[in-house]
Every structure is written in structure tokens, then in C-alpha cells.
Design brief:
Blueprint lengths: L6 E3 L4 H15 L3 E9 L2 E9 L7 E4 L17 E2 L2 E3 L11 H7 L3 E6 L6 H15 L2 E6 L5 E3 L5 E4 L25 H5 L2 H16 L31
Parallel strand pairs: 1-2, 6-7, 7-8
Antiparallel strand pairs: 2-3, 3-4, 5-6, 8-9, 9-10
């Protein structure tokens, strides 16, 4: 798996990028996943592309979420086959599409990412959290950050760091168990537990609001159980 935006392509150059990668995958018996920035007339796409080892048709996932103002066409579709789903970098900042993949039966999510220096470790762990929520293992490949492989229980199986290295590339490799069969409670029912906690906390604050006793005019302070400390609020014995 290669990071987000590993290649930039146009309609004429796309086959020259895809075919050599597909041939390499077929030759070694492995699926290849790669991030591609594809520019077509009047349109720009941020793709995660899966090239199956069996030589079948490539699968293109279009990134769903972008920073404001980025000139990309937004995706709306899941891409999942044989339990493996595709996503892309910032998509893991949000519950969707991760939760949708959990419902669709994805047991491994392949996520090309870019990240930025300084936030790569945190972003990879955000992806890890999505895997725990929705029940899939995660392969996270970042240009500038923390390439990482984790299982559906949040255990980091392999990790490396692209920050602070002059190496031409880094590699993380691990045997990855598939996530549990069937969607998790979170994938199935969504954010209901969080909202129940919010509602319960608000109700508790309303019910247990401190009762304030009011001192009526002419009422002695001792009736409220408070000591009379005199005019100055203090007492002295000589």
C-alpha cells in the first residue's frame, strides 16, 4: 500500500501508472493499493485505487472529506470487496464512511494518507479509533507521518515514522487479523450511547440543582444553623 497522492495523473497518463503496478501485484500475488491525484478536464479527484492480485478490474474510491476550499470532487460511495474497504486520509476524521464500512462488512480498511509534519502520529491513532468503533483492522500509509497497521481491538501491529528520516521510503509490515464478523454495536446503532450520556448528565444537573435558603427580613441567622459571629464577623476573648 502506497500513500495518498503518490502519483499525479491525467486521462492520458493514468494507464501508464496503473498497469505497471497491476502487473507487479499479479506477479507477486498481492493486492496493491495506491493514492492518486487525478486531474480531468474541469474535474479533480483524490483516489484510493485497489489493484486486485487476480487481475480483475481496478476499484476506484473517491475521497469524501476535504479541507474547505480544496478543488476536488467529493465521493459518496463505498468501495469494499472480499472484506477489504478503501478510504482516504481525512475521511477517518469523521464517523462516515468508517461506520458505513462496518455495516457493509469491511474487516480491513486500507487508507492512503498524506498527513503533515507534527500531526501524523495523532492522525494515525484517530484512524485506529475508527477501527475499534466499527470493527475493522486498519492499514494506514502516510507520506509525512506514521505509517501503521492495527487490528480491530486497537493493538498496533507495526508502525514506522516518516518524520525526521532521510530514507527514500519506510516500510511497515505485519500479519493482520481480520476484524470480527458482523458490525459492532457502534456501527449498528451509531451515537446513541453518547447522546444518552449527554441527556443523563443534563437531567442530573437539573434535578440536583443546589437549593438556596433565603434569609427573610427579621429572621435570626441562628435559625439557619449559622453561628452569630458578631458585627465584625469575628469573636475575641480577653
Amino acid at each position: 500500500m502506497l500513500p495518498e497522492g503518490t502519483f499525479g495523473t491525467s486521462p492520458s497518463s493514468l494507464p501508464g501508472v496503473i498497469e505497471p503496478l497491476a502487473q507487479a501485484g499479479r506477479r507477486h500475488g498481492v493486492d496493491v493499493v495506491v493514492g492518486i491525484i487525478h486531474t480531468a478536464p474541469g474535474l479533480k479527484y483524490n483516489y484510493s485505487v485497489r489493484l486486485p492480485a487476480d487481475g480483475s478490474k481496478p476499484a476506484y474510491y473517491t475521497k469524501w472529506h476535504f479541507s474547505p476550499g480544496e478543488p476536488f470532487r467529493k465521493g459518496v460511495d463505498l468501495v469494499v470487496a472480499k472484506g477489504i474497504g478503501l478510504a482516504n486520509c481525512m475521511d477517518l476524521n469523521f464517523a462516515a464512511p468508517s461506520r458505513d464500512y462496518g455495516r457493509a462488512g469491511a474487516r480491513l480498511l486500507a487508507v492512503p494518507a498524506a498527513d503533515e509534519f507534527g500531526n501524523g502520529w495523532q492522525h494515525s491513532r484517530m484512524g485506529l479509533l475508527r477501527g475499534v468503533e466499527s470493527g475493522f483492522s486498519l492499514a494506514w500509509s502516510a507520506q509525512w507521518g506514521t505509517p501503521m497497521i492495527s487490528d480491530a481491538w486497537g493493538r498496533v501491529l507495526a508502525s514506522t515514522d516518516t518524520e525526521g528520516t532521510r530514507a527514500p521510503f519506510v516500510v511497515a509490515v505485519a500479519d493482520v487479523p481480520a476484524g470480527p464478523a458482523g458490525p459492532t454495536l457502534y456501527a449498528r446503532f451509531g451515537d446513541w450511547f453518547g447522546w444518552v450520556c449527554v441527556i443523563g448528565a443534563a437531567a442530573a444537573l437539573l434535578i440536583r440543582r443546589p437549593e438556596r435558603q433565603q434569609l427573610r427580613p427579621g429572621r435570626d441567622r441562628s435559625e439557619l444553623g449559622e453561628p452569630d459571629r458578631g458585627v465584625g464577623g469575628q469573636a475575641a476573648v480577653l
